[in-house]
Structure formats: C-alpha cells, structure tokens
Write a structure and sequence with these properties.
Low-confidence stretches: 1-6
Mean pLDDT: 92
Number of helices: 7
Distance between the termini: 35 Å
Order of helices and strands: HHHHHHH
Strand content: under 5%
Largest sheet: none
Radius of gyration: 16 Å
Length: 167
C-alpha cells in the first residue's frame, strides 16, 4: 500500500478515487440486498473526512493559482455544507429502508452527485491543467493525512456530523 500511495498521491487522483467510492456506497445504500446501514456508516465517515480535508488542505491552496476559479472553490465549500445537512437528515432517520429513509437518501445522493460532478468539471480540471505535478503530489499527501486524521476520530458519527453542520 505504501508504494501505491507514493505513486498515486496526485490530489486530483486521490479525490477522484474518493468520489468513485462514494458513488459505490450510494449503490449499496440503495440495494435491498446490501448492508445499507453499514454502507451509510462508511459513507458518512468518508463524506465528512473528505470534505473537511478538501477545505483544510486543498481549496485554500488551489485559490492561489491564477487559473483556478476561486468562485468555484467557494461554491464547493457551500456544496459541502449542503451535502453535510442532507447526510445529517438521513442519519436521523431511525428505520433503514423506510420511505423516509429512501427519500432522504435520494436527497443526499442528489446533493452529493451534483457537487462531485461540478467539482470534477471545474476545480479538479483547473487543478490538473494549472497546478504543477509536484504541488499536486504535495496536496495529495496533505489531503490524505488530514482525511485519515478525521477518519480516526470517528468523524462520521451522528454527533460529529451534527457538530459539523451546526458549526
């Protein structure tokens, strides 16, 4: 794993890998054959850790590059907040698979999928084209370190998601 991480620390690649994992977890949360509650727990931790790490280690650094759209970076932070609110709403439903759970899952999927698509088309494309490889690798390392710190602190718990949403 260590060798793989060293080769693949480009922040864009690392973020895209998380995005694909989130999409896979959405599929599992929608599947009646899957451990939906387990998939939600994994998703919750990943969404919070990913968003916090982006805002702490990546977004600010990208805003310093002249060809990265600062308005899109700001908008990305707003969309993190919307996704976190939709996540909290889903976590607060007591019965997995109930109509209310399914409705809130779809609201969460819509908010997060919109953000992933927009971030990939704007911020990440700008970063790939305008940020030197070495700097993207440094950002990837910082992003992963911060993400792991949040994951180790049980960031996906309902209490922590509440704290993140309520600021």
């Amino acid at each position: 794993m260590a060798a793989e991480q060293q080769q693949n620390q480009d922040v864009v690649a690392v973020i895209l890998k998380d995005h694909r994992t989130m999409e896979d977890l959405f599929r599992r949360m929608r599947s009646v054959e899957a451990d939906r509650a387990g998939a939600l727990a994994k998703f919750s931790a990943l969404l919070i850790a990913h968003g916090e790490a982006e805002e702490t280690e990546v977004y600010g650094a990208l805003k310093r590059f002249k060809d990265v759209d600062n308005a899109e970076v700001e908008h990305g932070s707003e969309e993190h907040a919307e996704g976190n609110e939709a996540l909290l709403a889903l976590l607060e439903v007591s019965e997995v698979g109930s109509d209310e759970w399914d409705e809130r899952l779809e609201a969460l999927a819509k908010a997060v999928s919109h953000h992933l698509d927009e971030e990939e088309r704007t911020i990440l494309n700008d970063a790939r084209e305008n940020v030197p490889d070495e700097r993207r690798a440094e950002l990837g390392t910082a992003f992963l370190r911060e993400r792991e710190r949040h994951l180790a602190a049980d960031c996906g718990s309902i209490a922590n998601v509440r704290a993140v949403v309520r600021g």
